[in-house]
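Feature request, filed as a ticket because there's no other form

It would be nice if the structure record came with a short human-readable summary line next to the tokens. Right now we just get the raw output. Example of a typical job, pasted below so the devs can see what we mean:
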Amino acid sequence: MAEKPSKEPSEEPESSIPDDVWERFVQDSERDIRLSGAPKEPSARARMVTERLRQEEARGAQPEGWRTGPAWREMDGRASRRRRLWAILGVPVAIAVALVAVKPSLLPGDPFGTSSGTPSGGASAAALPAETAPPTAVPSSAAPDTPTLDRPFAGSPAERWADGAAAIVVPKATPVGTFTSAQVAAALKQAKTLLVGANLNPGTLRGERPESVLALLDPKQPRMLDDVNSWLRAPGKKHDPLLLFSRFDPAEVRPAGDVVKVRGRTTFKAGAHASVAIHMDYTFVYPLIQADQASKASGATETSGASTEVARTIVRRVLDLELLDPRKYQATPGKLSITRYDQDLGNTSCDVYDGFLHPQFVSAAPTGAPPTGPTTDPYDRSRDIRHSGTETCGTVSRT
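Raw output as currently delivered:
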């Protein structure tokens, strides 16, 4: 502690500062010096440690990471790289955050629930799971919308259906009676080929002869193959190829895109005639445009395409096939027999028997006879359509 200067007779006059004030001043000054970090005399232990380190450094034995060495240099390098990385990423990250703030739906999965649920452009709504049992109710109404070239299934339950042949999923084969799993699997594959060839093959849809289907039919089944050939050769009211095939007149309509929506199921069991009985129940939805609009559609943009009217025709087919045991019946090995073929047609002209489906367009004058039958929902797959081909032609509640 500093001492107060002694008073000498020959020096300046006595200070007017009281002793207690001087004492407090000295204490405060010493405290401020300690807090300021002013240099202090190192302790004996500190001087010893410093001397030892100096000697080790002189010998080249300085421990790594102390004052110098690769450890701190590496740490400094990593910190520098991190600073450079953040400098590079900072601007794009900031832009991305700003975009998401303006339009949260850009995030995958729409975590903030900002989507309206309506597909845009050519996107489809969430696909329905495959049909595994007979439906018990009519599908709910879709949001009212006008079909366009970009979205030909807009406003239809079929927008959530699977596309084309991929929608026809046959079940896993198992042995049936005298037939092995491999034989049943081959029959199921043939059944799918028949259904695709009759309702999805582009040539068949254009009215060409469906050779792939005819090749699957058993020529030993009485009258069946002859009947089908007569339907195709000379269509008429009693010889209508629409009983088995979906066909459109290319001079009248063209497909609106290359997708046909399909929904249904395939089952099989042991038949009553030592056979494999295959049951198929499928609905096909065909989007179409008028042939004279095809040139417009081919060069239509997203905007101009909306002015090209799209109509939809809906065809439901129920088909029962059998694979007979040739050791017990007159049958050709590997060929299928048709035991039932029922169809329900939606949005096609009534009482026109030229072998083609004729969709009705709002912008065109109606063709065929006026409908006289009841109004039905063509998407109602819970309804039994047995022998519906002989009923009077009715109207549809939606397409």
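Something like this underneath would help us a lot:
The CA atoms of residues 344 and 388 lie 6 Å apart.
The radius of gyration is 44 Å.
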